[in-house]
Amino acid sequence: MIHKPKIVVIGGGTGLPVVLRGLRDQDADVTAVVTVADDGGSSGILRNYINVVPPGDIRNVLVALSEMSPLELDVFQYRFKSSDQFFAGHAIGNLIISALSEMRGGIFPAVQELSQMMKIRGHVYPVANEPLTLNAEFTDGTKLSGEAEITAAHRQIKRVWVTTADGADGDQIQPVPEVLAAIRAADQIVIGPGSLFTSILPNLTIRAVRDAICESRAEVVYICNIMTQKGETDHFTDADHVRVLNDHLGQNFIDTVLVNIQPVPKNYLDFKQWNEISQPVGHDFQGLRDLGCRVISANFLRLKDNGAFHDRDRVVAELMNRLHQVHE
Question: How far apart are CA 276 and CA 299, in angstroms?
């Protein structure tokens, strides 16, 4: 039996599904580890009303790895119009995930059951089986709790950490055991792309997850964001992103960084439509090398709907290329 390479992708937000959609069609065993600290939009409302893990990021990851028909996926992703007062803004998939979480006594068993129903190629693991709260300390010494509030504050973040409803911190939080097992068995660990402080780091500030990654023999690849994010990474270079990751984990753990060097046309971006973005991430290749990183710089850019995104096919081709080189 031929060994399928095991790839673990860690993150949340809109960047994670892009990479997963491309990996789904590769001959690989793919596991997505998804943040449970989102508290904005439909996810936040459901979290507050019925005390479930926020389902939005999980919903998008399920869709990315699903082999259901386009019509079935469209129904799952359908979001009620704002004029539908009771259901305003809710995606049907969020309601289904929330209902199954109540029926099965937690988000993890709910997602495993839904994975079978949705014909998932791979595995989808919420990082924990309970909602987590993201906390941040800013460079001015002030602190805030809640992912949505932290992002809206538009202040420079110094560090973030997660807590449970009863006050347990990252040292005490128990991640889902399957998450740790997947990380330990991985041939490649992929981090990002996604919001550095609010999508990626909430997973990594759980000590058990952090330790498993640092102890892993797998190559750790960071897909650096193309654009900086308002209120999170203003004026950041690619090396700044890696430096923040390393500081939170207490060691230089990123082995390889994928960096887009294709210029983003200034007049193409619609900053009103994509109001989270600020400017292209700056390059500091010497800084990356000083952090012990292998740098792969290439055209990873895809221009779409007046926004700048990662080109899924080019990113996935590079990830698979890294796997083959490492294991030759």
Answer: 22
Question: SS3 of 30, please?
Answer: strand
Orientation angle between helical segments 207-215 and 238-249, nearest 10 degrees: 110
Q: Indicate if the pLDDT at residue 13 is higher than 60.
A: yes
Q: Give the strand order in the sheet containing 256-260.
A: 123-126, 29-34, 6-11, 188-191, 219-223, 256-260, 294-298
- Has residue 235 been placed in a domain? yes
- pTM of the shown model: 0.92
* Torsion-angle region of 150 (φ positive above 0: left; ψ -120 to 50: alpha; else: beta): alpha
Task: State pLDDT tens for residues 58-73.
Answer: 999 999 999 999 999 9
Residue 168 counted as domain residue: yes
To the nearest whole percent, how much of the chain has pLDDT over 90? 68
Rounded to whole angstroms, the Cα distance separating 155 from 48 reads 25
Dump pLDDT digits (tens) for 168-190: 999 999 999 999 999 999 999 99
- What are the backbone angles phi and psi of residue 8, rounded to the nearest 5°? -110, 125
Integer Cα distance of 78 and 58 in angstroms: 15
The CATH number given to whatever domain includes residue 309 is: 3.40.50.10680
- Which whole-number Å values give the CA distances from 219 to 7, 175, 186, 293, in the listed order? 10, 22, 9, 11
139 is in which domain, residue-wise? 6-36+128-326
Q: Which residues contact 259 (CB under 8 A, 6 or more apart)?
A: 224, 238, 283, 285, 288, 295, 296, 297, 298, 300
Of how many residues is the chain composed?
Answer: 328
What single-letter DSSP state applies at residue 264? P
Task: Say if residues 197 and 160 touch (Cβ distance below 8 Å).
Answer: yes
How remote is the C-alpha of 258 from its chain's centroid? 16
Domain membership of residue 306 (yes or no) is yes
